[in-house]
Design brief:
Elements (H helix, E strand, L loop, with lengths): L10 H19 L6 E11 L9 H4 L3 E2 L5 E13 L5 H23 L7 E3 L7 H9 L32 H15 L3
Helix pairs in contact: 1-3, 4-5
């Protein structure tokens, strides 16, 4: 989200100032009420050859991907189950959290003495499938104690880039199966 597109705009600006602003304006114009949860997610790769080079205090939260690279995933809940008639103040909150997100990650990394340098991945190498799977956990029991003032549940993933991702094959298959399963009525 901190990359520039071909027109010179940050992808973050396009998402918040463009897509979300227009979406919320349309909802207001059409008098539509939705419940919104926004979660920022990213992956940080560390410049190490193995987990043994990570300090002991941070090792338990690290993972190794299919290519053998050590990484850590980050998530920030911006809003959970928010409903509003006026989304403008909410957009201000989103902008503030998005602007602090990368700094907050660096502060988290720097809390552990001796941590190697961490580099935020490109969207294509990120944790989009993990984020999708976490969001689908809401659907596990969507039919139990259903709140009928909402007529459906939907996951929308906004990510910079071309929509092509490098992913573990097993996780890809699991995600595909979960999406198919939750698409069927229970």
């Amino acid at each position: 989200m901190w990359e520039f597109d071909t027109c010179g705009d940050l992808y973050m600006e396009k998402a918040v100032n463009g897509f979300l602003t227009e979406l919320f304006q349309k909802w207001t114009e059409k008098n539509i009420c939705h419940e919104v949860t926004i979660v920022l997610f990213s992956r940080t790769y560390y410049e190490v050859n193995s987990l043994n080079e990570i300090p002991e205090a941070a090792r338990s939260r690290m993972h190794v991907d299919y290519a053998g690279q050590v990484y850590e995933d980050f998530y920030r809940v911006v809003a959970q189950n928010v409903r509003s008639d006026d989304w403008r103040p909410f957009l201000t909150t989103v902008k503030k959290v998005v602007q602090r997100y990368e700094k907050d990650i660096q502060q988290h990394i720097n809390k552990v003495p001796g941590m190697p340098k961490g580099i935020t991945s490109k969207a294509s190498q990120g944790n989009v499938l993990e984020a999708i799977n976490m969001s689908m956990n809401v659907f596990d029991n969507h039919y139990i104690n259903r709140n009928f003032d909402r007529t459906g549940q939907l996951v929308i993933v906004i990510t910079p880039g071309a929509g092509v991702f490098e992913a573990d094959r097993k996780l890809t298959d699991l995600t595909k199966q979960r999406i198919i399963d939750y698409g069927k009525s229970k």
